[in-house]
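User: I want to check something. If I give you two sequences, will you return the structure for each one separately, not as a complex?

Assistant: Yes, each is folded on its own. Here is the first sequence with its structure:
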Amino acid sequence: MDHVELKAPKGKYRVVGIDLFADERYLVGDYDTPEVAIKDTDKNNSERTCPMDDIYYAYDENGVRIRANEAGKQGVSP
């Protein structure tokens, strides 16, 4: 799996996507508040149409996951 730093910059929150076909992580963006990062994570996950669509997670500055994909169980967990 590609290495994308899960830790957001200090004081930020990071959204990371996972391409399940390529088994790669990619940076979606860094956000100023957890609410905005969670909202973007939920929006992206709600647009999934099949189990193999990309999944999204949000992390804080310590690399702690603050939001899983919509089911919290599907797909892989970085």
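And separately, the second sequence with its own structure:
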Amino acid sequence: MRARRFLLISVFPLCWCAMTGVAAISVTWLAEPIHMQTLEPKTADLDIDANGIVDFILRSDGSTFDILSLADNDILAWTYPPPDYGSQVIQLQAGEAIDGSSSPGWTNVPGLFSSVMESGSIGLWLPPDATGYFGVRLEIEGNAHYGWVYLDNGWAGLGGGDIYGWAYETTPNTSILAGAIPEPTSLLLLGVGSLVVLTRIRKKNREQSASHLRWGRVSPHFVTKQNCCL
């Protein structure tokens, strides 16, 4: 009994630590994607860190789809050489690192995803390779936080694609992989494992108790004698 009590007492701190020591990646998956397909000018706000302040604005006019950075936030993009103004947003695949050294570099000038017109198409997000991640850098309390946004731009011919979700690293100046999400920590696994052990012990004790009761129904004298010897 003492061993069972010790295990029960030790499990709860483990689970509490596992819950409070959550992973540093904050992920947002949208119940409904942000649709940017339109025949008229359309905008949508992105608040990556959910602080009530818009970090980026998506824009589409029916043919051109781009993103505008607000405040000191940046996007990972290839910048047009002067005298041109603007950039093309880089498409990343799952697992690519996003940090301060990411190439070609960070910028806060408007970033183009795609522009599809009768005269031709430009952009790095054109079918059939129009799905992936793009990197963002947030300025939070004076520190840089890196993140990713998942975009399916398969509707480029209608001015834009679908944003399904995003994530950012809550630890300042820390690299994040495109598509990375929090994983269970070893501490959480330890807590779950302890609960499994506890459940098995309790099950075994119930089986033993049931076995004693069956013996008691067959031979009450045996049970009485055993109790007297405890």
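Because they were folded independently, the notes below concern the second chain alone. Residues 1-23, 185-201, 208-230 have pLDDT under 50 and may be disordered. The longest strand covers residues 25-35.
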